[in-house]
Design a protein that fits this description.
alpha/beta, Rossmann fold, eight-stranded mixed β-sheet, 6 helices, globular, tRNA (5-methylaminomethyl-2-thiouridylate)(34)-methyltransferase activity, methyltransferase, tRNA_MNMC2, oxidoreductase activity, acting on the CH-NH group of donors
Length: 227
């Protein structure tokens, strides 16, 4: 059973009764997506380049596509900066377009971005689709362990349900499989930070750092793939 609920910043999220968890933080769905993934992931990756980013091309892999909020915010930032975005989401249990429409996220986005996404979302579960002129989206309808790709990505958004609810998404095998798709110099970000996660990432050749967390969390984790 899925239920729309309001979070502390006024934005909505979805509660999944079967899992027993929200798709976003109860302290603020919009704030969490913006802080953890867009600011601490995408903007962090772009910051060393500086200057004019027009014509740049980046790729993002998201583990746990969910409502699409992380994608939508990232797509709009890239469009504003003239950056070409290739975005792949992994989602074992895709939401319906109707359910996503009920989140009310349209109010935070340009109408053309939102309308194009909602219209083409079902097709993105089968093949790559275009959102605007510089953004491509494809959602892999599979479990993380079954995801395979010859591509390597600049940034990984790891947005699975918490380990208390989906421990198999956070074990060493899952993290190793995920990091295998990250380019050297690429950025991995997630809202969580645990000793096991830090040790797993370090063993995979990543430099791990703590970053300030979104509201409700003191810290989050960011890792840079060195090897």
């Amino acid at each position: 059973m899925l239920e729309i609920i309001k979070t502390a910043d006024g934005s909505n999220t979805i509660y999944n009764a079967e899992v027993g968890e929200n798709y976003h933080s109860k302290h603020g769905a919009l704030q969490e997506s913006q802080h953890v993934f867009v600011n601490s992931g995408l903007k962090y990756f772009l910051s060393p380049t500086g200057g004019d980013l027009e014509g740049a091309c980046i790729s993002i892999l998201e583990v746990g596509f969910g409502t699409g909020l992380n994608f939508l915010l990232s797509a709009e930032l890239c469009a504003e900066k003239g950056i070409e975005l290739n975005y792949t989401g992994i989602e074992a249990y895709p939401l319906s377009a109707q359910m996503i429409s009920q989140t009310g996220y349209s109010q935070y986005l340009k109408p053309e971005t939102w309308n194009s996404f909602i219209e083409k979302y079902p097709d993105s579960l089968k093949a790559g689709i275009s959102i605007g002129t510089q953004c491509k989206l494809q959602i892999a309808h599979c479990k993380l362990h079954d995801f395979a790709s010859a591509k390597h990505y600049d940034i990984i958004y790891f947005d699975a349900f918490a380990a208390a609810y989906q421990p198999e998404m956070w074990d060493e095998a899952a993290i190793a499989h995920t990091i295998g798709f990250l380019k050297p110099g690429g950025v991995f970000v997630t809202y969580a930070i645990t000793g096991n996660l830090k040790r797993a990432l370090k063993s995979l050749g990543c430099k791990v750092e703590k970053a300030p967390g979104a509201p409700g969390k003191r810290e989050m984790l960011r890792a840079i793939k060195i090897l």
